[in-house]
Every structure is written in structure tokens, then in C-alpha cells.
Amino acid sequence: MPYLTTSDSSRLYYEEAGAGNPLLFVHGWSLSSQIWLQQKEYFSSRYRCIAFDLRGHGRSMPSCSGYGIDILASDVTLFFDRLCLSGVTLLGWSLGALIVLAAYPAVRERLASLVLVSGTSKYCSSTDYPHGLPPKEPRSLSLLLKRNPHKAMDGFLRKMFADERQAEKGFEAFQQDVLSMLPFPSPEVMIPVLQTLETADMRPVLPLVREPSLLLHGDRDLICPVDSSHYMSTQLSGSQCTILNGAGHAPMYSRSNAFNSALATFLGKVYE
Predict the structure, then answer these.
(1) Which of 63, 120, 161, 210 is the most buried (most CB within 10 A)?
(2) pLDDT tens-digit map of 112-163
(3) Cα–Cα distances in angstroms (integers) from residue 62 to residues 118, 254, 263, in the given order
(4) Would you say 249 and 206 are in contact if contact means Cβ atoms under 8 Å apart?
(5) pTM listed for this prediction
(6) 156-206: per-residue pLDDT in tens?
(7) DSSP H helical segments within the chain, as ranges?
(8) Under a CB-based contact definition with an 8 Å cutoff, are residues 6 and 14 in contact?
(9) Which domains does the chain have, with CATH numbers?
(10) What angle do CA 262, 266, 271 make, to 5 degrees?
(11) Cα 269–chain centre separation
């Protein structure tokens, strides 16, 4: 199994398939690169698909240096450097969108485009940002993770699908295809990463982006409100915002046909 070793001796698991222009996938909090399984299958016939597990997630080792946004972003840069990537479409889902934006200044010269899925530039709402969830949401989840990790994760993951309408694949299939493949990270990983999700603010990066950008978001998302993508679309010059009606927080899984079609159309224009 392929791994990259970081400067602090953490080992990051990754998979790649296909050849051509590279697509680098970054998953979200508590899950793994397995969430992108339907994209790897679909796009590897035309592109070089690379997906890795964040520190402490999936098959990657826990971090020796914490889980701050800069550390997580540096791991994205590591893949660009070690795999000699250029002309990349960098895709981030949920927390992964924040990580992608944090990595942007370091990799911008090697990018072809950005894709932010169910993403946000700031997860929690504040006096100057009404498009997120109240800070009490991640804090309450952190407390529950300390007391009852199983209950905390079951509630969070079910919420990803709770308001979904006419899904191609629902929570039961998700349990089989994604959750059964790998164990959850430990609370010692999930809680500090959740704190990073709560505090990271990548809004200053948005005006810097000049590459084509696609924002994909379900209008039934209860984890990252769809308004967060509407906001980013006003800050990203030349961006395209595609709202998937009836979709929840994981449209690349629950609505893979519509998701892959929208992404394929976008990539066709980027690499034409």
C-alpha cells in the first residue's frame, strides 16, 4: 500500500488510479478517501485520480504535530511535491474544502482548477458571517465525543443524509460501502480536528483565487449550509455554483450520477 512520509514522520496513505491530468481529492472530518470511491471509478478512465487519508483518518497515522489547518494544508502540498503534480484540479469536501483553500497559496502555480464540495470558507457563524452553523454545534459534538463516541458519530453521520430527497444511495448503502471499510478515527484525533473546523477562517483566500472554480452543494445539507457556497461564489471570480436539489451533505456519494455529470462537464472545459 502506498504511503508518503511527512517531515514530522507521519505516514499518509493514498491511492491512485488512471492517467492524464491529475485530480487530487481531499475528504472531510472523521471519514476517509473511501468517500470518493464513485469518483475514482468514474474518472480514472480519463484522469489520474489521487485520493489520500488525512492524518489520523483511514489508514494514515495520527499526527505528531497536531491538526491545525496549516498542518493539514501542508500535507496537500506534500502530495504536489512528492508526486510532481502540475495542472491539478484540487477537490475538497466539507473540511476538505477549508484545507484546499488553506493550501491554495502554496500550490496555486500548479493548479488548473478548484472544486469545493459541500464546502465553506468558515464553518461557524459570527457577527460578520451569518452563513455558518452556531459555534455551539461543533462544541456540543466534541463534548458528546468525549462521553459517548458511538452515539456522537451515529448522529453526525445520519445527519448527513437526514433531509435527503430521492437519493441514489442512502445511509444504509453508505454504511456498507464506506463505514464498514475502515474504523473511525479515535476521539483524540476527531476532537482537535473538529476544533480546527470550528476556528479556521479561509475567507481571505477567496479573492486570491484566479483559477476556474466549481462549487457543488446540496440544498438539503444540514452540516454545511448551502448559503456558504452562495457566499463563496460571490468572492471567487469566475466561479460556477451548482446546487443539487434534494441532496444532503455527501452528494458525491448519494447523488453520484448528477455529481459526476456536473464535475465531468466542468473538467471538460478546464482541460479542453
Answers:
(1) 120
(2) 999 999 999 999 999 999 999 999 999 999 999 999 999 999 999 999 999 8
(3) 25, 29, 32
(4) no
(5) 0.97
(6) 999 999 989 888 999 999 999 999 888 889 999 999 999 999 999 999 999
(7) 37-43, 69-82, 95-107, 136-147, 149-161, 171-174, 187-199, 227-235, 251-254, 256-270
(8) no
(9) 3-270 (3.40.50.1820)
(10) 145
(11) 22
